[in-house]
Structures are given as C-alpha cells and as structure tokens.
Amino acid sequence: MSEPVLIEVKDRIALLTLNRPHKLNALNYAMVDALIAHLDAIEAAPDVHAVILTGAGERAFSAGADIHEFSASVQRGTDTAVRDFVRRGQAMTARLEAFPKPVIAAINGLAFGDGCEITEAVHLAIASESALFAKPEINLGMPPTFGGTQRLPRLAGRKRALELLLTGDPFSPAHAREIGLVNRVVPHDELLPSALDLAQRILRHSPLATGRIITAVTRGLNVSIGEGLQMESEQFARMVPTHDLREGLAAWMARRQPVYTGE
Fold first, then answer.
1. CB 65 within 8 A of CB 85
2. How far apart are CA 32 and CA 96, in angstroms?
3. pTM value?
C-alpha cells in the first residue's frame, strides 16, 4: 500500500502530499493520523522551517472525509463517531492551526468538506485557478465537524459563512480569496512555485520570530484584545534573550543582512 501522506524535504521546506488520488484524497483515519505524525516529526526537525501541504493528482486537494469509513463509525453509535471521527479531525486542524512553523496549503483542485476545513486552519493558502471549494456537509444531514462552523465565520464573517454552510453550494477560488479563505489565486502550473516562493520569503527571517508571531496571532484570535496584547507582550519577551533578536538589531544598525540561527 502507498503511504497516505508523502513527505519530501528540500531547502528547509517540507512538502506534504495527501496521497489518495484515486479517492480524490478523501481523508480516512490513516491519512489523518499520518499527517499528524508527520507534523510531530517536522516540529522536532531543526532543519525544517516551513511546510507546504498539497494533494496528489490533478483533480483534488481533498474532496473531504472518507464517507464509507465515517459511516461505519456512525453505525457504531455516538461515542464511536465522536471519538474516531470528530476528535481525530479536530485534533488535526488544531495541530495545523497552532503549528509553530508556517504551514502553507497549495490547493490544487477540489477542497470540499474536511479539505476546506484544512484550508481554514492552515496559516496561509494559495489556490490554483482550477480549485473549487464547498462546505457540503449539510447535504449529508450534518454540520461540519473539523472546525468549519468556527473558523469559517472568523475568516469570512457570520453571514457569508452561514450562506456557504447552509446551502452547501460550491464556490470559486476567486470567492475564496474574497472572503479571506486563501491569500491568492494563481494559474495551475504556478501553484507549487508560488507556494515555494512564499515559503522562501518567510524563511529569510528568524524562525523564532516567525513562531512567536504565529502563536500570538493564533491564540489572540479567540480572546479579548487586552488578553491578546498580553500574549503579544509574552511572545516578545521570549525573544529578548535570543541571538536572533540581537542579530536582527545589530544587522539593522550596521545596514547588513542578518544571519539568523534560530537561537
């Protein structure tokens, strides 16, 4: 059997590929577990500073959950369905959202259901002009379960999110950009080069500062502005004793390029 998630590391960037193209990269339990395991390994890898996540094949980023596997869990009852499906999926999207290294989704095709929820959770996203998005869970008689009822309204606003959630209608990459779900839309053959370029522009900077910014933004979204400002202060305080902050200041004053070590 092929690996459910492929990994390739080059130039400090890990490329993760959802690898069930014959099933439109539908997320089964093995794929979710493999993705989380790869993220755990990448977090501990000092030579990897960014992640790009995409889908295998030309048709889909991910068409959503593996309905046959999910249906079997539902048949076994509420406790099983919540444990095996909901908690697993929410753990995956929470891991992506709070990951301390930047995660960029390169949306190469269909991003339906759970595939759309991954897009909502990652830090940055670039979509191919061939991409297509949808929140179709209502067509199955259920709400989204991997965070879609919470993250999409925070990105798009309540009314725009509810229209997508309550109709299940597909929407274009242009609309995804308009509502803040993706950062930009590019021609299909420029998708991975654009994602790599974005990652490299981030990697010019201190990996420690990058992680502190991600943490402050992710945690601050769900608290009051006062609590968020305290988090911002705490993340800055963690940078004060580091080489990277001293190097950044020294390089600025000397009008030279900084050399960051991540220490």
1. yes
2. 11
3. 0.95
CB atoms within 10 A of CB 189: 10
Contact 18, 54 (CB under 8 A): yes
pLDDT tens per residue across span 136-169: 999 999 999 999 999 999 999 999 999 999 999 9
Distances (CA, A) of 90 to 95, 130, 139, 225: 8, 27, 20, 25
Structure tokens at 150: 């919470």
CA–CA dist 241, 244 (Å, integer):
9
Give me the active site residues, please: 117, 137
Residue 7's H or E segment, with its range, is strand 5-10
| Tens-place pLDDT, residues 4-45 | 999 999 999 999 999 999 999 999 999 999 999 999 999 999
Query: 80-129, pLDDT tens digit by residue?
Result: 999 999 999 999 999 999 999 999 999 999 999 999 999 999 999 999 99
Measure the CA–CA gap between 1 and 3, rounded to whole angstroms: 7
> Using CA atoms, how far apart are residues 255 and 184, in angstroms rounded to an integer?
32
Q: What 3-state class would DSSP assign to 64?
A: coil
Report residue 147 CA to chain centroid gap.
12
Give the Cα separation of 49 and 261 in Å (integer): 12
Tokens of 11: 């130039």
Tell the burial category of 141 from Cβ atoms under 10 Å away from its Cβ (0-12, 13-18, 19+): exposed
